[in-house]
Here is the input.
Amino acid sequence: MEWWWRPYWGLVVIIMMEVGGHAEGGEVTYDGRSLIIDGKRQMLFSGSIHYPRSTPEMWPSLIAKAKEGGLDVIQTYVFWNLHEPQPGQYDFSGRYDLVRFIKEIQAQGLYACLRIGPFIESEWNYGGFPFWLHDVPDIVYRSNNEPFKFYMQNFTTKIVNLMKSEGLYATEGGPIILSQIENEYQNVEAAFHGKGPPYVRWAAKMAVGLQTGVPWIMCKQTDAPDPVINTCNGMRCGETFGGPNSPNKPSLWTENWTSFYQVYGQKPYIRSAEDIAFHAALFIARNGSYINYYMYHGGTNFGRTSSAYIITAYYDQAPLDEYGLKRQPKWGHLKDLHAAIKLCSTTLLQGVRTNYSLGQQQEAIVFQEETGGCAAFLTNYDGHNITVQFQNISLKLLPKSISILPDCKNIAFNSAKVNTEYNDRIITLAQTFDSTDSWEEFKDEVVNFEDTSLKSNGLLEHINATKDKSDYLWYTIRLEHNFSSTEAVLHVQSLAHVAHAFLNNIYIGSANGSFTTKNFTMDIPFMVKDGINNISILSVMVGLQDSGAFLERKRTGLTTVTIQGDENEFYNLTNYEWGYKVGLLGEELQIYREENVADVVWCKYGTSINQTLTWYKIFFDAPKGDDPVALNLSSMGKGEAWVNGQSIGRYWISFHDYQGNSSQILYHVPRSFLKTGENLLVLLEENGGNPLQISLNTVSTINVQKDSSDDQIASSFEDYIEMESYRYSY
Here is the structure.
């Protein structure tokens, strides 16, 4: 035990037992200093855990580890497109069981913050909107638009009434102490001109009118109308937050990003435990009283739930990784921070705050109670060790750090001093799938013009045609020209994410875009034949955009198709008659489900690799033990994987970062997806891949000594700023 903990150890144990021991409901109010629950001021630490990004079987362990880490609150979005897939048809089953999730939070003695939105962004497909909204006549999302407001109010009311019916708001004895309406609207508000501010006022009034008995918040919304509290999102809210828009509202930080979302083609952003702790401590020192870590557990974007170009693993660098394992030292260092803050929370919430200089880049922020209680935060912004004099005590401050003195005498925590052991993730091979006798394959069909029932003069918009029922849309055309040249170039411009081209059922090439590009082009030389030529282009989306103004107007899919023969031979096919088909045959038949697997003829696995549009299946036994399970798909190209009929998400191994590495090769298979005996693995491979090199693994951790040489080269803070600018420029 470090020396500076010794004076406080007994008290810390008591505090850590009390925090989260029982989060009883009661009246929830606030003033300019904090939330007040059942008449008591509260200093609250929270963590985001999204129920559909894990499984009900994982929820108890995740919440227990959050509680053990010193959290008081679990924060989650509500996912409209999961819960209302069709107007008036609701689904709260399985991973979507919001009530069960909230009740598990309550059972473990924690509070809940329910971010209803219902626009959530969250790197979630279409920002959480159900796609049927797109077809509502005259709708304009997130605007002072009557059709949108009608459906938004319907869903918000549905969720609030569901929570009330289960007694889950704090005033009913439940755990929910905060609710959120809208989400970072100020990022796009100006785009709506005069329709923006009235919408904000309407959303606030509508939410408050639902009478939940607990405060409502709007994040990143400086014009949040009273009594709604405006809150901060970001990595440095202690520095960037302008504060509440009323002296009667507390300073709340709804998203302290513990890492950042990762896109295909980029490395993860690795944020250090020290940096998170520094900025959290600074926010508390500057009168903050609620900090939520986004994410505390990121989890998995199962199925087709991730937004455009977002990888399947979500915030894997969070304190609890994708599998729910503690990521050290991040988890432990934040636990120590929470304990130190709790030692002096009464003083922080009731004392008078003053600050004064200890040097050119050193500052003391002191909270003093009339009864004598004193707590201090000593900040060193310098990159070097500094010794300062504070209240006649000589203290050494580490570089770029904050020291917390709960009694203004002894340092209980320093943000730059990590006392938690580091750990590494261990991947243990459980099974290889290298037997050709075990695999079977099914080659999906290439669709030609005569196979289609939907035809149109011109190129249809992709997601308007698919209604987001599939990532895939076939664009097909039949040419009956006699070409004077035998060589030509197919030129395609697309606002989708990927395109695969086929000539007379033969694959001729592919191209793709990226997160930071709005479109891409594909130029493919090919040999033409006299007479009829069938061109089939498979347009692919890898999630829908989750942010930006006027999402309902975003165009996707092919925009231009031409053929260039010799210098005198040019065909612009853009306005020709095209045939269309949504999805693939295997998708339509759901051959990834065991009950449907016999609906097509599977062939013995061949020896050729790099096949296009091929389904692979194999049966396997679940690994023994309780460790999390992951598939290593590093030998595959791009597609989707299912285990016992449940999608574990998209994969895109062939999209490399600047160093030639895949963004993700391990894919989480929750234990609850597995069964005793045979388990069915099905993969849809778009273009390439060798399933014989796939392996099944278990995941665990081991304590290690920190070695700076082990640090990954990661995306920088500047990379994240650039990504955000692209995100809202669409």
Observations:
- The CA atoms of residues 635 and 690 lie 5 Å apart.
